[in-house]
Amino acid sequence: MRRGVALTGKLAAAIGLAWILGGCRQAPPQPEIAPFLYVLGTAQDGGIPHAACTCTRCEAARRDSRLRRRVASLAIVLPSSRRVYLVDATPDFPEQLAMVGDWALERTGGVDRSPLEGILLTHAHMGHYLGLAWLGFEAVHVRGLPLYVSAAMAEFLETNEPWARLASSGNVTLHVLEMERPLPLAEGVRVIPFLVPHRAEHTDTLGLRIEGPRRTFLYVPDTDGWENWEPPLEQRLAGVDVAFLDGTFYSTDELPDRDARSIGHPPVVQTMGRLDGLGAARPRVYFTHMNHSNPLLEPESPARRELERRGYGVLEEGRRWPL
């Protein structure tokens, strides 16, 4: 028995030596190189907890940071080329920039003046562009960061301070998107912007079709009711694998002192009723941009259970979606 053990040990040592001499050491883990979407936030513009709100959900989020939700944003991450594009610049911009730092920054211990490859802006409501303030002289002081915007958004930024100074000082460069025309990024990823109806106090509003080598996503965090869409939502969903849609309100009776219909978002119950009829043709649908009043924020709520029973989901911060 001992002789057998000794022979086995010698054999193992010989095999190990041959492995090393032959240059066959076990390969180190390979870094992630396939492009993906990274969810940086899923809350309505005011975030959760919401300012000046003492509702049960907001107070709970103040006590427990795990219940907090950052403002809706996505990152398009291209790891092999270390490129990161943000969709919208929210009031939570510093934290969301840190979330993508492993892919976007060379960790040199200094300040990176080019932390992103670019930012795509959907519109000029507070939760979608106020984060631009961190790009200027007082904070990151980026150099020539591309902003991809509609023509109306470009005019708004160029004619209103402090945003105009970002362009005149060379912190950002404005690139006007052509609607329905693909914007190639890299690694087989492209973004197709299109107009969606929404309150146009300052600019128009964009939705994005994000196409990758393996999957296609539709991102529409803000819109008026689906009945105002032309072409209709169902047509926009053709060829889409996963859709992230406006889920600001679950129903129109959530706000005790405001009529949710006046704010201009389709309630989730209406969206589900519309899309249920698509059957097997319906892509996977997840709701985002949720207001602090939305019962979907509670995993055990009747609303959440009903949503999941019908085959829909709630978008979760921190999740990665392969493109």
Helix content: 10-25%
Q: What characterizes the major β-sheet?
A: 7 strands, mixed
Compute the separation of the termini in Å: 56 Å
Taking strands numbered 1, 2, ... along the chain, how are they ordered across the largest sheet? 6-5-4-3-2-1-14
Question: What's the number of extended β-strand segments?
Answer: 14
| Count of DSSP-assigned helices | 10
| Overall pLDDT | 89
- Structural class by SSE content: alpha/beta
Note poorly predicted spans: 1-25
Shape: globular
Textual characterization of the structure:
- The chain has 323 residues and is α/β, with parallel strands linked by helices.
- It has ten helices and 14 strands.
- The strands form two sheets. The protein has a seven-stranded mixed sheet. It has a seven-stranded mixed sheet with strand order 7-8-9-10-11-12-13.
- Helix 8 (233-236) links the parallel strand 10 (216-220) and strand 11 (242-246).
- It is globular.
- Mean pLDDT is 89; it is low at 1-25.
How would the blueprint of this fold be written?
Blueprint lengths: L1 H20 L14 E6 L14 H8 L9 E6 L4 E5 L5 H7 L1 H4 L13 E3 L5 H4 L15 E5 L1 H9 L3 H6 L3 E5 L6 E4 L2 E8 L8 E7 L4 E5 L12 H4 L5 E5 L21 H8 L8 E5 L13 H8 L3 E2 L5 E3 L1
Parallel strand pairs: 3-4, 4-5, 5-6, 10-11, 11-12, 12-13
Antiparallel strand pairs: 1-2, 1-14, 2-3, 7-8, 8-9, 9-10
Give the gist of this structure.
It contains ten helices and 14 strands.
Q: What descriptive keywords fit this protein?
A:
globular, 323 residues, 7-stranded mixed beta sheet, alpha/beta
